[in-house]
């Protein structure tokens, strides 16, 4: 399913690509879900054990907090809301192909934008925790000759992070598109197995890898 929007504004045609449209669909769906869950939490009774959806949400929140604590340390639980939001968005975006839409993460602009957020967080908290002197000194360790390599390594982190996610998701989209084109009506007999791998398995794995590397980069910068 392909959704693109063309608008005419002040005599000029503005084209909104499929990636932007699908991203906003995901954002709207997740926002509605968050509002619904928030309403359920407010109406829940404190003295009663959570059940149904609230029980699942509690398990997810505890899981994210446990992952952040084990990866970054108990003193960095403030990153749990961001990591949870990032994981939820990436998971839905990567699985969007199951509904017939193009996954936003198959567009490099999206993955690079997310990687830039991780890069900014890494540099900001590295500077904040070490101070300006310690931050600059880190580029000259363990020896001054490695300064150029340390700079290249910092710049390479968001590039490698974005390309890893983009490449895996895009390859799945291309392969599935070729299979549908080659098999035609018979694709329904074969493609479910490949959807399970390229959309579900690869989507979940790439989500986990992205958030893990985000936590590792930020925590290493703060040490």
From TrEMBL:
It is a multi-pass membrane protein. Pfam families: ATP-synt_A (PF00119). The chain crosses the membrane at residues 20-37, 79-102, 108-127, 165-188, 200-222. GO terms for biological process: proton motive force-driven plasma membrane ATP synthesis. GO terms for cellular component: plasma membrane; proton-transporting ATP synthase complex. The keyword Repeat does not apply. It comes from the Bacteria. Keywords: ATP synthesis, Cell membrane, CF(0), Hydrogen ion transport, Ion transport, Membrane, Transmembrane, Transmembrane helix, Transport. InterPro entries: ATP_syn_F0_a_bact/chloroplast, ATP_synth_F0_asu, ATP_synth_F0_asu_AS, F0_ATP_A_sf. It is found in: Cell membrane; Membrane. GO terms for molecular function: proton-transporting ATP synthase activity, rotational mechanism. Key component of the proton channel; it plays a direct role in the translocation of protons across the membrane. Belongs to the ATPase A chain family. This is ATP synthase subunit a. It comes from Caloranaerobacter azorensis DSM 13643. The lineage of its organism: Bacteria, Bacillati, Bacillota, Tissierellia, Tissierellales.
């Amino acid at each position: 399913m392909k959704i693109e929007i063309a608008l005419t504004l002040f005599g000029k045609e503005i084209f909104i690509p499929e990636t932007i449209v699908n991203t906003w669909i995901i954002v709207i769906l997740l926002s509605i879900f968050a509002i619904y869950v928030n309403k359920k939490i407010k109406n829940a009774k404190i003295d009663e054990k959570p059940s149904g959806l609230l029980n699942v949400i509690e398990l997810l929140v505890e899981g994210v907090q446990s992952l952040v604590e084990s990866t970054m340390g108990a003193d960095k639980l403030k990153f749990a809301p961001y990591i949870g939001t990032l994981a939820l968005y990436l998971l839905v975006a990567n699985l969007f192909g199951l509904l017939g839409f193009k996954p936003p993460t198959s567009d490099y602009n999206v993955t690079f934008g997310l990687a830039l957020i991780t890069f900014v967080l890494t540099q900001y908290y590295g500077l904040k925790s070490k101070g300006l002197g310690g931050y600059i000194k880190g580029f000259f360790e363990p020896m001054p000759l490695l300064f150029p390599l340390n700079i290249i390594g910092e710049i390479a982190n968001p590039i490698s992070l974005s390309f890893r996610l983009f490449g895996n998701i895009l390859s799945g989209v291309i392969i599935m598109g070729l299979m549908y084109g080659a098999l035609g009506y018979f694709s329904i007999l074969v493609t479910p197995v490949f959807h399970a791998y390229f959309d579900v398995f690869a989507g979940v794995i790439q989500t986990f890898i992205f958030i893990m590397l985000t936590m590792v980069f930020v925590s290493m910068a703060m040490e």
